[in-house]
Amino acid sequence: MPEHKTIDAHAHILAEETMALMRKEAPKIGPRMERMDDNFALLEVAGSRYRPFPRGGWDMQRRLGDMDAAGIDVQVICNTPQTFLYNQDPSLTAALAAIQNDQIAKAVAANPERLIGLATLPMQAPAMAAYELRRAVRSLGLRGAQIGTNINGRNLDDPTFEPLWAAANELRAFLLVHPTQVAGAERLGAYYLVNLIGNPLDTTIAAACLVFGGVIERYPGIKFLMVHGGGFVPYQAGRFRHGWHARPEPQAALKAPPDASLDRLYFDTIVHGQSALEFLVSSAGAPRVLLGSDYPFDMGTLDCVRQVRALTLAEPDKATILGGAVRALIDDVA
User: Are residues 240 and 211 in contact, defined by beta-carbon separation less than 8 angstroms?
Assistant: First the structure.
């Protein structure tokens, strides 16, 4: 894969064959799709409905065509957040995660120049999650996993997750942290605020817990990508630093200032504004900002390559954001 290729670090997939295999394993839980028209469907998973689910989510030819039109050479693909299934029996979630991971590996094998794969894990059972992560990386060739910002209300600094962090650190895994079960949802029902505010809010909580809980400090081999521009983290990083010095509570599990841990977080480009993206790059640095589309969902963007190329940055920095940074992280997975 030449260095100059553009690599989208944040994209989702749920193929029809995957849905069928998941329904066979768990008829009441597995995804079902009802076509709305030629471009969209209603997706139902475990009784919950999501619409619209765009065709690119299940149709590989549509995906590849959209990538070509957007100037995206390679996508890092992971499951749709609707299929995390953290609220199900752990053994069932593990079985359905294994099906999805096998299918993602199959898609990558069929399109090795266009796709890189990430796993999904039964996060409610961290020992099972650690096992599946090792299998996904060592047997399937996936490069890490997508995980939720919280697991049934447990923040990511919860001690029960230590077996997973140990496995991810051993593998030097790439972990994409995606919002799910967002905080404050009971107040965010109107105006699509559960996504507009809830998603970046829960990403911010997850990042803060990884930093102040000492997870990043203890496990330096893990590369954490905080999606949607890192939520509010880049904008409030100074507040995190100030709080650690001003108050005893942030020092409870993090004995050193948070600077080093904050500086090891990665962010995607999905901020929907040039000035916001310029601030993100100026504050985090180009090597910590990764191209992202959130394909195929409507809160993502296929303008991501154009947006990066429009920035007033040196060409080497643009090349880093467009693919160089994520390529280095992916290639470092053990």
Answer: yes
